[in-house]
Design brief:
There is one protein chain. The protein is α/β, with parallel strands linked by helices. Among the domains are: 2-75, no CATH class; 122-196, Muramoyl-pentapeptide Carboxypeptidase, domain 1, CATH 1.10.101; 303-362, Muramoyl-pentapeptide Carboxypeptidase, domain 1 (Orthogonal Bundle); 388-568, Glycoside hydrolase/deacetylase (TIM Barrel), CATH 3.20.20.370. Helix content is 39%, strand content 7%. The chain contains 20 helices and 9 strands. The strands form 3 sheets. Strands 5, 6, 7, 8 and 9 form a 5-stranded parallel β-sheet that branches. It has a two-stranded antiparallel ribbon with strand order 1-4. α15 runs parallel beside α20 (548-563), α17 (457-475) packs across α18 and α19 runs parallel beside α20 (548-563). It starts with a strand and ends in a 5-residue tail after the last strand. 34% of the residues are buried.
């Protein structure tokens, strides 16, 4: 007899429905086992429950013929993953329980109100600007604007009241410290407001502190704090405002000086460096921190070249580098500067160029009267009228240049004035006699070209009288004027010369520096470029070295001046 059994539990093994078990009535199966399947059919959920304890002892072991089916049966219950099925309803049940507490309206204001109230005040940048500084006692719109900006920057203690109060003062001081500005005097000065971006004028105002002297090792106090604040403001953030000169300050000063091509020796922030930083208190530009006493040119090295290179860079010739050696960049910059200033262009930086660059420290008289800067340094000087020109020649006579010059003057029928060196008269008296016969003026220069400013009154008189006597003996000319060697003069020199019967003193206002032997066209161009109608006192040379270029340039000079309508005159006649 075969019984349809849906589920049969035998020693913990479950046989699904559809599996038939052959059983005979004579097998001795107790009647209770026959009723067991009927109890298991009704509830399908009993699959998960443990088997009833009464069924285990009553159910006998299945016969050997039925052993193969149970061996395959354990694989079947593993397919439905029973533990995963309860998890799905548990998650679905959690969703409604979690979402229910979020729905009440009472919880929404608690989470939204803080963000909504802070957003309009802190995230929207104020658009107001300020035209005046603020400080203790200030009220009104400018203070409200400042407070709004401070609040926007995160200073939550500030309240927009329109009155200067302690929280506002603390917030301003904190901001000033954060950007390296001084907090004294108390208040938001114009520079602080400009740094905050609320200053109405787009141009940067003056830095709030100034310095009246150089700052260096050993310096302390407010001038150091001001320097440190300015250095921090210029981007040297390693500097701390301590009021004492320290290593970070010295390093920052050197970096700044190198950035603008200033010399870093001696150590410290000299007055020119302070002026370049924009914190110099004086109304005038301080002198450049280095000077030169000699010409600088090919072959020059050392500090004088570095000084020249630094000054050229400072004047805008930024291709120059401070190398301490004369190079092509330096030479090009010097020539460009001389052309810009309408000066004589040579292969070196002459005293004239150095004086124009304001770094000349030599004799103040000589370079001040060269080239464009030909105005005399001392007192009044003999002058000529408008559209008149006086050609003058110094340091002669000299073979063969004096004779050649006299010949050219005679050919063009123009007069000139010769300032003679007394000890040279005997070497070329024939040229002087030819000049005197042609109507040219012969006057005193000196006996041996010694600077008159270095001599006593008697020494000056001796130089003049000896030269005058030599000329009178050679040519019969009586002298009345003089030109001091190198243009070095003073009121004392003029008084001494007048006491010996020689006045006035003759200087010049055009000097092509032919003593440096530039090209003939350079000499001519230098003179003709100044022929704009004013009276010209041209200083040339017929002695003291090779004057071949002067001789070659003279015809062009005379022709050019005549074409410009100039009248040639001689002096002291």
């Amino acid at each position: 007899m075969r019984l349809p059994i849906q589920v049969l539990t035998v020693v913990g093994l479950t046989i699904p429905a559809g599996v038939a078990l052959a059983q005979d009535d004579d097998a001795g199966v107790p009647p209770e086992t026959a009723a067991a399947p009927s109890t298991t059919e009704a509830p399908p959920s009993t699959v998960e429950a443990e088997p009833p304890p009464t069924s285990d002892p009553q159910v006998p072991e299945p016969p050997s013929t039925t052993e193969p089916p149970p061996t395959t049966v354990p694989e079947v219950p593993e397919e439905p993953e029973v533990p995963e099925e309860p998890e799905a309803p548990s998650t679905t049940e959690a969703v409604p329980t979690d979402s229910v507490p979020e729905e009440p309206v009472a919880e929404e204001p608690a989470t939204v109100e803080p963000t909504d109230s802070a957003t309009p005040t802190d995230s929207v940048e104020p658009t107001c600007t300020v035209a005046r500084p603020s400080g203790p006692g200030a009220t009104g719109a400018r203070v409200r604007c400042l407070q709004r900006h401070l609040l926007y920057r995160g200073d939550s203690d500030v309240v927009v009241t329109g009155e200067w109060d302690r929280p506002t003062q603390r917030a301003v001081a904190a901001y000033q410290r954060s950007v390296g500005l001084l907090t004294r005097p108390v208040g938001a000065n114009a520079y602080t407001l400009w740094k905050m971006g609320i200053w109405r004028d787009p141009r940067a105002p003056e830095f709030p502190c100034t310095v009246a002297q150089s700052v260096g090792p050993g310096s302390t106090g407010r001038k150091v704090r001001c320097l440190q604040s300015r250095l921090y403001d210029r981007g040297y953030t390693e500097v701390r405002i301590t009021g004492v000169w320290d290593e970070p300050t010295q390093s920052a000063v050197k970096q700044f000086q190198r950035s603008v091509n200033l010399l870093t020796r001696p150590v410290g922030a000299n007055r020119y460096t302070v002026w370049k930083l924009g914190i110099w208190r004086g109304s005038k530009v301080p002198p450049f921190p280095c000077t030169v006493r000699k010409s600088v040119g090919p072959g020059s090295t050392g500090r004088k070249v570095r000084c020249l290179q630094s000054r050229l860079y400072d004047r805008g010739y930024t291709e120059v580098r401070i190398t301490g050696t004369w190079n092509r960049r330096t030479s090009r910059a010097v020539r460009t500067f001389e052309r810009d200033k309408d000066m004589l262009t040579l292969d070196r930086a002459t005293p004239t160029t150095l004086h124009a660059l304001r770094i000349w420290s030599g004799d103040p008289g000589r370079p001040a009267k060269v080239g464009r800067f030909a105005l005399p340094s001392y007192g009044s000087v003999y002058t000529v009228g408008r559209r008149q020109v006086a050609l003058t020649f110094d340091d002669g006579p000299a073979i063969p240049y004096t004779r050649q010059i006299v010949s050219i003057l005679n050919r063009y029928e123009v007069p000139a004035t010769f300032f003679v060196v007394g000890q040279s008269v005997s070497f070329d008296s024939d040229s002087l006699q030819a000049a005197a016969r042609s109507g040219h003026s012969l006057q005193v220069h000196a006996w041996d070209h010694t600077s008159f400013t270095r001599l006593s009154d008697y020494g000056i008189g001796r130089q003049i009288t000896r030269t005058s006597s030599a000329l009178r003996s050679a040519t019969g000319v009586r002298t009345t004027c003089y030109r001091p060697p190198g243009g070095s003069t003073s009121s004392r020199v003029r008084a001494a010369a007048a006491a010996y019967g020689h006045a006035p003193e003759i200087l010049w206002n055009v000097n092509p520096a032919d003593y440096l032997r530039p090209a003939p066209y350079t000499i001519a161009a230098h003179i003709l470029n100044r022929a704009d109608g004013r009276g010209l006192l041209v200083g040339l040379h017929d002695g003291g070295g090779s004057r071949a270029n002067t001789v070659a340039a003279l015809p062009s000079v005379i022709s050019g001046l005549k074409a410009r309508g100039y009248e040639f005159v001689k002096l002291c006649d």
